[in-house]
Design brief:
It is a single chain. The protein is 19% helix and 34% strand. The chain is built from six helices and 23 strands. Strands 5, 6, 7, 8, 9, 18 and 23 form a seven-stranded mixed β-sheet that branches. Strands 1, 4, 19, 20, 21 and 22 form a six-stranded mixed β-sheet that branches. Helix 1 crosses helix 2 and helix 4 crosses helix 5. The longest helix has 25 residues.
Length: 410
């Protein structure tokens, strides 16, 4: 008996399943599917997950449930297309998937994961030693410690590390006196839970190349702080005026992490009354949101995050930087380092949107599930006497709560 012809809906459902099965980063972030049709370059608004803090004492502190929104630009349109004969449509869906759909969706999953992994450039919290591969519990424990200190919920947390770190961590588990863990690590390279993180390997972990950091940079001018109200609608960022860089040189890359002398991190949980937040025993880390080039006099205005807020419930630092406070950039100049990411689900968001279905195509379908959407369209090329099919995804990514993530440098 002949196999039943494969329909566009069957292909779309199979493609969606294969896409989701091959995602690593994107399966562990906040996902939302938008029903509205938009074009590449449009922005859509998504709900920001509600964020609470722990209040102290017996007196009830009522918190407003503020489910805000953030704009995400839908700027990623990816597809995979191939030619095949009409006879291939008589294959079983399993055979057709193995031959065509699985390889196509592995490719699409890779570019989606890379887009999410690239959001490291908006994360300022950093642990680990640049140039040293994370190799043990202590390495992931330092990331867990930082998230704890920043009052990040204990569950769910994920860590996605590059293959070098992943296999090293798995190797360390083979010596554990936990039979099941050691056996899985030895035979399959399984990592599993470490320090409260559901830990995964991915070749899509990004490498960051540090800027030249040329010069001996300083803060140029005191009292460079802002209020939360002034940046609430534009994101947790501000400009910082600096000087003493090497004149006329590209000094920082987007994603560079730095500290400012005398500016310390604070526990994000508000203190009692007007006493402010608890100051942490380490300097606050900042991230450059854009490349920076010094002018002919060595001056450069940086776009940085988090914003320097010195009071109120949204306080981010112990105090504003002093004039001529020294700036120290993490890592060696012009050197690449893996940016393993440890994060809570709500740190990052992936938004997929449906594509418009072409009227002239008879063989077409679109499937959406669990925050993902994929479209399949087939047509016939009369010139080459070939069937042509394509799978398309359209999406955007954003770091909606970068303070819920930490970079584990390798």
């Amino acid at each position: 008996m002949a196999n039943k012809l494969i329909t566009p809906s069957v292909i779309a459902k199979e493609a969606l399943m294969q896409l989701e099965n091959n995602l690593v980063f994107a399966n562990r972030v906040h996902r939302e599917y938008k029903k509205e049709f938009v074009k590449v370059g449009d922005t859509v608004s998504i709900r920001r997950p509600v964020k609470f803090y722990a209040a102290d004492g017996a007196t009830l502190v009522k918190q407003d449930v503020e489910e805000g929104s953030t704009a995400i630009k839908i700027d990623q349109r990816k597809h995979v297309g191939w030619e095949f004969s009409s006879q291939d449509l008589t294959l079983t869906i399993e055979k057709y998937s193995e031959r065509y759909i699985q390889p196509a969706c592995i490719t699409l999953a890779q570019v989606v994961d890379q887009a999410v992994a690239s959001l490291y450039k908006k994360v300022w919290n950093s642990v680990g030693t640049p140039g040293t591969t994370p190799a043990n519990f202590a390495a992931l424990g330092s990331a867990a410690q930082r998230l704890d200190e920043m009052a990040v919920p204990a569950k769910p947390r994920a860590a996605v590390v590059n293959p070098a770190a992943g296999w090293t961590l798995a190797g360390g588990q083979t010596a554990l006196y936990m039979a099941d863990v050691a056996k899985s690590a030895y035979r399959e390279g399984t990592i599993g839970d470490i320090a409260g993180f559901d830990t995964f390997r991915s070749q899509n972990v990004r490498n960051h190349v540090v800027g030249t950091k040329a010069g001996t940079p300083l803060v140029n001018g005191a009292n460079q702080s802002v209020t939360y109200q002034s940046i609430a609608s534009t994101g947790n960022k501000q400009s910082l005026v600096t000087d003493a860089w090497t004149p006329s040189s590209a000094v920082l890359k987007a994603g560079d992490v730095f500290t400012i002398a005398g500016v310390y991190a604070v526990n994000p949980v508000p203190g009692e009354g007007t006493t402010g937040k608890q100051v942490m025993p380490y300097l606050q880390q900042f991230v450059a949101l854009a490349d920076a080039t010094a002018d002919g006099s060595g001056n450069a205005t940086l776009s940085i995050s988090p914003a320097i807020i010195t009071s109120g419930a949204q306080q981010t630092v112990s105090n504003a930087p002093a004039d001529n406070a020294a700036i120290a950039v993490l890592g060696t100049a012009s050197t690449a380092y893996p940016q393993n990411l440890c994060f809570s689900r709500n740190a990052f968001a992936l938004v997929t949107v449906p594509l418009i279905m072409p009227d002239s195509a008879a063989f077409k379908a679109q499937e959406s599930h669990n925050g993902l959407s994929i479209r399949v369209v087939k047509d016939f090329d009369i010139t080459t006497d070939k069937e042509i099919i394509r799978l398309d995804v359209m999406f955007g990514v954003e770091a909606i709560y970068p303070d819920l993530a930490v970079r584990l440098w390798g």
